[in-house]
Amino acid sequence: MNKTFTFLFIYLAFSHITHSQNIDWVKQIGGTSEDVILSVDTDANSNTYSTGYFANTSHFDEITLNSIGYFNGFVTKTDANGTILWAKSFGQPNDGDINDYHSVIPRSVAVDANGNVIITGYFEAGEFDADPGNGEFILTSNSYEMFIVKLDSNGEFIWATSFGATENSFENIYDVETDINGNVYVTGFYSGSISIDHAAGTDFISSKGSNDIFIMKFDASGYYSWMYSVGGPDSDISIDMEVTSNSEIYITGQYRDSATFYEPFFMGSPVILDTTEGYKAIFALKLDTNGNFINVIKIGEAESSAIGMSLAVGINNYVYLTGHYGGILTSNTGSSNEFNLNSDNNYEGFIAKVDFNNNNVKWIKEIDGANSSVYSFAVDTDSNNILHIAGFFGETLNVGSFNLTKQTTNAQENFLIAMNDSGDYLSAHQFGGLDAVDTQSLVIDDNDNIILGGSFKETVNISPFSSENISITSLGFRDNYILRLSNNTVLSTKTNTLQTNFKIYPNPTSDYLIVSKNNLNEKLNYIIFDINGKPILSGVTENKEKINLNTLNSGVYFFSINNQNTFKFLKK
C-alpha cells in the first residue's frame, strides 16, 4: 500500500543532501605594484596553471619574480594541495634596459594531454625573451606582435613563435586550446593583414574592417597548419574557444553591423550574419579540425549590444554560452525556438544552450540584476553536465528562486551560479570586498573541482559561502587570487532541524512523485540524488504536478526542494 509522508509544521531531523562546494585552498599572488591573472587551466592530475602579468616584484609563495622593463608575463603551476611548484616570468632579455617600458602580456594558458603548457599573448615593440629559464629565445617586433610559447610540465622551454599584422595597430590572441594530439589552436583579432611562411609557401589573411577575427592551428612542434579569418566592415572580436575530443572547434565573441563567416573559393554562397547598423550581436562558430566551416549561429538582433564571453561543450555536444547584453536580446534561427530578452536600460547576463546539429538555440536564461547591471564572464561544465557560471553584479542578482544582494560598499560583487542542462538554477553564491574583485577565469578539472582566478584590491572575503570568512588583503595596487572549490554533492552526517509543510507522495513509488504545499503558487527547483549523493535528475515543478521517475532504477533516493528541504523516498 502507498503511503503519504506529510510534514506539517513539525520539526524533522534528517541527513541532509545539498549541491555544495567546499573551499579546498586559496592562493594569493602579488607584490607592491600591479598583478593580474587573466587565465587558468588544469591538467589530468588536478594541477592548476595560471598566467597573467606583473610589474616590479611579485611573490608566489616562496618564489619571487622581478620584472625587466614594465609589465612582464608570468606562468605558475600549483599542485592539487595548493602548493606552488614553480613560477616563471617572461620579459625582455636579462641584459634589457630596466627603464624600457615595453610590456609582455600573456592572455591565455592551456595544458595539453602530456602536461605541456602553452601560453599566448602579445608583446610590444622590441625584444622578448620567450625562454623563462636559463637559456634565451629572442623574438623581435617593430610594433605589437602576438606570441605562442610552449613549456614542458616542469616549466622548461620547448618552442616559441610570433606573428603580427602589417598595420601598426593593436592585436591579440584571446584564447588558446589544444587537442588530443597536442595541436595548438589560437584565436583573437587583428587589422591589416597577417602572412605566415611555411614549407608549401605563404598564407595570408586580410581584414575587412577595423578589427577582424582570426583562428590558427599549429602542430605539436609549433609548425603552422592553417588560418581562418572572419569579419565585416566594422569591429569584430573573438573571446573564447573550445576544442572537443574529436577536434571540433567552437568559438564565440562579437560582431558589429555584419560579418562574413564563410567565403567559398569557387562555388557556393558566403555565410553573412547581419544586425542593425551600429549594434553588436553574438556569434557561435563551429569549424572542423582542418579549419573548414561547419555552422554559425547568432544571438542578438536590432537594438542590442551583446557579447559572448565564454562557452563550454557539454554532453551530446550541446554548447553552453554566456555573456551579457544591453537592450533587446533575441534569437531567431528559423526554428520553433525563438527568444526575446530585455535588459531594461542596464546590462544583464545570460546563459544559452545552443544545438549546432539542429541549428537552433534550445533556451536562453537571463541573469537578472533588477535595477543594476550584471556581467557574466565564464562558464564550464562538470562530469554531471552541471553548468557553473561566474561574473559580477552591481546591487542585486535574481536567478530562479535565488536572490543575492550586495553585502559590501564596493560597486560590484562576484557571483558563482550552478545550473542544470534544462536551464534550472541549482545554487547561487557571492563574494566581494572593499574594492574591486575581478574574476577572469573559471575552469573545472577532471575531478570536478572548480578553480576561479582573478585579481582584487584592498581586503576581500574570497569565500563564496556565507558560513565562511576568508579575508585576504592586497600588498599593492592589485593582487591575484586562485580559489579551488571541491564540487561535491555530499551526504552530510549532520542533523538539520527544519520547519516545513511540504508533502511528497506516493512513497514508495513506482513511476512518479508529487510535491504539494498549502497555498503554494510559485515554481520549485528540485534535485534528486542517489544514495551516494550523486545528482541523478533535476528540474522545476509546480504544486501537485507529477514528476516522472521512469528513468530511475529501483532504490533509495533523496529529493531536495530549492536546495533547502530534503526528503527520502523509495523507488520500487
From TrEMBL:
UniProt keywords, alphabetically: Signal
Pfam family membership, one: Por_Secre_tail
Ranges where the Secretion system C-terminal sorting domain occurs: 504-569
NCBIfam families: Por_Secre_tail (TIGR04183)
Protein name as annotated: T9SS type A sorting domain-containing protein
Source species of the chain: Neotamlana laminarinivorans
